[in-house]
Amino acid sequence: MRGGAPGRLYDFTALVLATYARVRYRVRALGAPFTMEPRTLIVSSHRSDDDVPVLVAGIYRQAHGRLRGRHGPGLHFAVRDDLFLRGFFGGYPERLPELVRRALFPVDLGSILHERLQCHPIRSATRMRLVEYLRAFEPESELLRAKHAQQLWSVLAPAELDVPEAWAQRRASAIEDFRELVGVVRDGGTLVIFPEGRPSPDGTVGPLMDGVGAIVRRAWPARVVAVAPAYDPLVEGRPRAYFAISPPSTPDVDVLHLLKRTTPLTVGDSVAAALADRADPDRRLEEDVAAAREEGRPYEAELDDPEIRRARVQTAVRVAGARPLDRLVRTYRSVRA
User: Fold this and answer.
1) Which of 106, 122, 179, 334 has its CB surrounded by the most CB atoms within 10 Å?
2) What is the pLDDT of residue 1?
């Protein structure tokens, strides 16, 4: 579906994702406005599994208007390849009850994602899941049962699976995915990719997957736009979720640096870092806001007001005692490294 406009399922899915994000969080877009332009590559840092709903809530209306209807081609997404495998819910999410996991094991979302929702797999040439190997090379294996659903989602590397033909097939599939992603942009589409490949396990921004630079070079988009979600749990009530958008860049941009510069300043990150450093949170946030203003890093404009800053810091310090802070501290430090 590179060339055609997506249909109602695409719009309905976007509505569901945006609604979830706005119920779960207080979502706010920061930074530059976004408009759909041909041959755009959107690179997004990956903070949590909620990034896509927050992204849709933050950018969908800007990209398509209140109701896209039949106007325009829509956003394309490069997504984790195991979403396209029958039985995806057998291995994800990790806390899914075992009985539910087994019941959902036969579900196959791949064709819907690819044909109706403009999602494209991005496979690694050096990693595959056990279920993929067994279905392709040992289809009669007793392991291919719902009762083994979670075990089937274990990841294999070449050192763990000495079957050259399996890895040759995997490399061919990875090349096919690469060409499809490049083709989306070359054909005039707007593609969203997550260069880190998965949600950050510890809060840091980066490193990027191998091959991201190759996609940028081969697709040669007219512009590269960074988006960066950020979450602030050190608040009362629903957590805050931010979605920052960079001005357009040229294809030779340093993607990791751009993602770090686009990551918004949050009160939670600043306060958590100050507490970890045994510094004054009020003074730290004041300095961080001044630095963000000078650097052009996105932040909430009302934080320029000392009274508002002070009130937000007081709330964050009060809430911080009941929340883990390590992830916030790592995010704060990694975007400044």
Assistant:
1) 122
2) 42
Q: How far apart are CA 336 and CA 205, in angstroms?
A: 10
Please tell me whether residue 200 adopts helix, strand or coil conformation: coil
Contact 228, 335 (CB under 8 A): no
Question: Which of 126, 119, 122 lies closest to 195, judged by CA?
Answer: 122
**What's the rounded Cα separation, in Å, for the pair 70 and 155?**
40
Q: Are 229 and 264 in contact (CB under 8 A)?
A: no
Helix (H) or strand (E) segment spanning residue 23: helix 8-24
**What does the pLDDT look like over 168-181, one tens digit per residue?**
999 999 999 999 99
C-alpha closest to that of 32 among 314, 223, 193, 248 = 248
CB 270 within 8 A of CB 312: no
Name 28's bridge partners: 242
Tokens linked to 207: 């490193």
For residue 101, give every residue at least 6 positions away whose Cβ sits within 8 Å of its Cβ, in sequence order, or none: 89, 90, 146, 149, 150
Q: What phi-psi label fits residue 306: left (phi over 0), alpha (psi between -120 and 50 degrees) or beta?
A: alpha
Give the largest Cα separation in the chain, rounded.
68
Task: At 273, give phi and psi (nearest 5°).
Answer: -65, -40
SS3 assignment, position 80: strand
Q: Report the predicted TM-score, pTM, of the whole model to 2 decimal places.
A: 0.89
Asked if 76 contacts 191 with a C-beta cutoff of 8 angstroms, the reply is yes
Structure letter (DSSP) for residue 2: -
As a whole number of angstroms, the distance between CA 96 and CA 140 comes to 27
What span, in angstroms and rounded, lies between the C-alpha atoms of 269 and 204? 12
